[in-house]
Structures are given as structure tokens and as C-alpha cells.
Amino acid sequence: MKFKQLTALLLLFTFFISCKENSEPQITIQQYLLIDLDKLNNEIENFQNLVTHNASQKEILEQFKKSRLAYKKTEWAIEYFIPETARFMNGPALDEMELEENRSFEPHGFQVIEELIFPEYSTESKEELIREIKIFKANIKQLKTNFEAITLSDDYVLDAVEQNVYRIITLGITGFDSPILQSSISEAGQSVVSISNSLEIINSKSKTLGSIKDLASKAKKYCEENNDFNSFNRAYFITEFLNPISKNVRKFQLEEKIKDIKKTSPLKQTASTLFDQDAFDVNGFILSREYNFSKEKVILGEKLFYDKTLSKNNNRSCATCHNPEKAFTDGLKTNVSLTGSNLARNTPTLTYASLQNGQFWDMRQLDLEKQSVDVIQNKDEMHGSMDAIHAKILLNNEYGALFKKAFPKTAKPEPWQIQNAIASYVRSLNAFDSRFDLYMRGNKNVLTAQEINGMNLFMGKAKCATCHFTPLFNGTVPPSYSKTEHEVIGTPQDAAGKKLSPDLGRYLYNQMPQLKGAFKTPTVRNAAVTAPYMHNGVFNTLEEVVSFYNKGGGKGLGLDLENQTLPFDALNLTPNEEKDLVAFMKTLTDKKYQ
């Protein structure tokens, strides 16, 4: 056969194969997920088989890790589309509480199983372990039913993928969902790869996808080569891999002309990374649109914030206890009431207070509007009257003009607008311009080696970031930011640490035994200038706070506390590590307070 004829036949054969491949329907994201759920189910069945036949702990642990890795391939979709089921597959091993109905549900899933098999597994736990496995399998079956029924459009898939990048940063590499076994690093590598795999189904020919796949591959390799939980360099991993992936996912979205999801969320969909200065939207925490943030409301709210006529005796304003020079705290253990006695609790910072779903230490108010009224009308704090304040404002021409600019659609000031204006001023107090923020945006010269090590400790060995979530560093749970957590840490009554604080915290408003001594997880941002610390101001320095956590909280000190949610085992931080941790927390100070 002549060369030209052979070439023609090869070209014809190649064309035939190409046509055949193009004629085959491309796998859908739905089919892709169902396949991975089958793989997860197979791994769980293998796990069940090993437990049933009394395999060694080593074999059981290895299969458990394989099962978790299989879950990580699907986590991006499960957590986003079916979070109710996800909570009972990979949520904390703590009771799930519905406070409105005053009831709780026992936890299930990987974290419960982890506690049964590690650090030691006994066949005495076999029956309970098999029960948990069967519940897990039932949840997989439910997931398959749900994913077979729903439509997974590109815009929602893209949003789910973006959230998964943030989930890896805030939860995946911190040990949040593997607190004992600490298998988080290898799992994070798998989670990163699932990002590029999911986007490939949308458009496998995208140039930006190539960059994402390359970064994901390098990120996975980095996790495989540096899989020790305590020594893993999270600062490097985020800045070199996850932030660039996040930027490229956004670029991919714009190139593919995939629209943003219409939703109210604290995390803006326009953010290119979790660490953008304007990544968070305070309107994500408001009750309804009329409460939306505006500069005009801030100007009005600032005037009200410093106005002493809001109190009964015209001698106390909001700024009396929330001093702007101290990041809107007062520097006192607890402030003094109008009658001269000490108030029960420490004055928290108002900076970043708008980025949470719970106000006051006991979280008795959901939003800032109700928070301001609570303080103004409290007989020990301001003892004011909203009706009296409203009447004064109606007679004040200066206020009248400011209200007209802030609320142009109403003829005259209304009481709810007073609350909204003060709340709007508080919502303006989020700077996101600390040295930490600059570092995460690419300025590598602003942090020292000690501070970077402190960051890695905060997000790793010290377990701080499992409650104080990056980058808000409060208890508002990422990446949906729809819930703010409380914790029972066993705060002592005084520095001696011999007695537990008698303050029952959230239990006073929701009398469930799990909530005795439960308090909101506040932000660590600006902590360097907001001493003293804890709900009762018991610690004067960050060094004392770190020492308390290093010992395992109240229970670690030997205090009688059955419901402590903070792990009570010692963290075993060295003296130098404690110093590094404090050094890092000082990098969270906003520029104006440095």
C-alpha cells in the first residue's frame, strides 16, 4: 500500500473514532455524583465487613480513612445541596439542638465513628459501631434519591465548588471534621481535586480549567508529601494553592458566562478569594431589605451612638462602654451599672459584631437592631425609653434632616429606624486591614516567621480555628455563615481557677442541660487591644488565655463540667509555641488600632 493511501486510511479512521467519541453523551454532574456515591457506599460496606468479622484495629482504621476519602470526593455537593443530611454524616460529635423547640438530636456520622475506633477500639463498642454504619448507609441511600430527583445546573454547581474552596480553608485543614484522628491533610488534597473534576464536566476545554487542574494536582501532591497535621504549613498552602484556585474558579465562571446565584449571603459571590477586603456583606445578617446598610444610615447612627440623651439621665451613651479607642470595648473586667454596682459581664468589642447570628455573650438577641434596644432599655446600663427617644428626635431639626437622608421614603422618623441607624453604624466597623489580611492578599513581607508559625498553630495543633473560624475568627460557621456557634469551655470564676464561673450563659434563655455555661464564640480580631477576656473578664492577657486552652479548659483544670464542648485534653503546646500563637493573634489588629 502506498504511503499516501495509508495516510488517507489513518485520517479516515481517526475521523471515525472522533465522531464516535463526540456522538457519545457526555457524563452529567448528576451521573458523576451518583457514581461517586456508589463508590462511597462500597467503602462503607467494606468497613462494615471488617467490623463485623472482628478485624484488627489497624485494618479498621485504614478502611475508615478510605471511606472518609471517598466522602471527600462528594462533600462539595452533599454539603451544598443537602446540608441537613451532611450534618449527620460528617458533623461534630455534639448534640444538634433546635432551640426554638427546646429539643436536641444525638449526633451521627464519621466523627461519632472516629471516637469509637480511635485512639483505641474495643469490640465492646462493636454493636454501637455497626449501628452508626447502618445509619450512614441509610443516609447515602437518601442522598442518591435526592440527587436523582434534583436538577444540578451549572450556576449552582459553580457556587457549590466555590464554597468548597472556602470549606477546605476554614474547616478542611483545621481538623474541624477529624478532631481526633487528624486525617485532615490528605483529605484536603482529595477535596481540592474534586474541584477541578467537577468543573471539567461543565467545560473540559476551558483554558482556565487547565490552570485549576495544575494547581489542584500540585496541592494534592503537597498534601501527600506534607501530611503531618501539626507541622503542615497552612499559610503556604492557602496562599500558594487555594487562593489562586479560588481566583481561577471565579475567572472560569466569567469566561463561561455562568451567572451568580440570587441569594442573600454574608459571603459575596463577587469575591475572588475569602480574604478580599470586601468579601463579606453585612446585609447577609439583616432581617429584611428595609434594614439594608447605607452610608447615610451610618452618619445618622454615629450621631445616635454618641448621644447621651438616649439614656434616662442623659449621662451615658453607647460610646460610654464601647470606646472607639479600645476597639469599642472599655478595658474593664466588667463595667459599672447606673447604680454603681458591677455589671455581670465583660463588654465585648463591636468590631465585626455585625458578622454573626447572635448578640450578647448569651446570644439572647439575633440581630444588632434588637441588641441596641436591649441595652438602651436595660435599667442597669442606660435605662432609656425608645418612646421617649423617639419623641425627642421628632422635635430635633438636625436629626430630622439626617433621618430624611437615611430613610427618604418615610415622612418622619420611626422607632425602628433609630435601631437600624445605630446598627448600621456598628456594621461599618469592619476594616479587614490587619497585617494578617495584607499577608493573605499577597504581601509576604508583613508577617514574621514567628507570626506565620503562630498562624499555622492557630489553624492546626492549637485547634483555635475549629471554633474561631478563619477569616472572621468568630463562631459563625463557614462557608454558608448561616449559624453562629456557642461553646462550653469551663471559664473559671477567678484567676485562681479553682471554681467554675456561676454564670449559666445561654441556659438562662434555653434551659437545656447542654447549654449550661454556654457562651457565644467571639471574634479574635482586635483581641490585642480588647483585654480583659472571657464573658467575666477573668483573664487579663492573651498569654493567660492561651495557657487556659493549652491545659484543656475548665475540665483540664480539674473543674467539674460534664457538658464541656471544648476538648479537655492538653494541647501540649511548648512555651515557644504559646508565644508564637500570641504573636499571630496580634497580627489580627486593624490598622487604626496598631
UniProtKB/TrEMBL annotation:
N-terminal signal peptide: 1-20
Entry's localization field: Cell envelope
GO molecular function, one term: peroxidase activity
Keywords: Heme, Iron, Metal-binding, Oxidoreductase, Peroxidase, Signal
Parts forming coiled coils: none
Main subcellular location: other
Residues annotated as domain Cytochrome c: 296-430, 449-589
InterPro entries from the UniProt entry: Cyt_c-like_dom, Cyt_c-like_dom_sf, Cytochrome_c_Peroxidase/MauG, Di-haem_cyt_c_peroxidsae, Imelysin_sf
Pfam families linked: CCP_MauG (PF03150)
The protein, known as: Cytochrome-c peroxidase
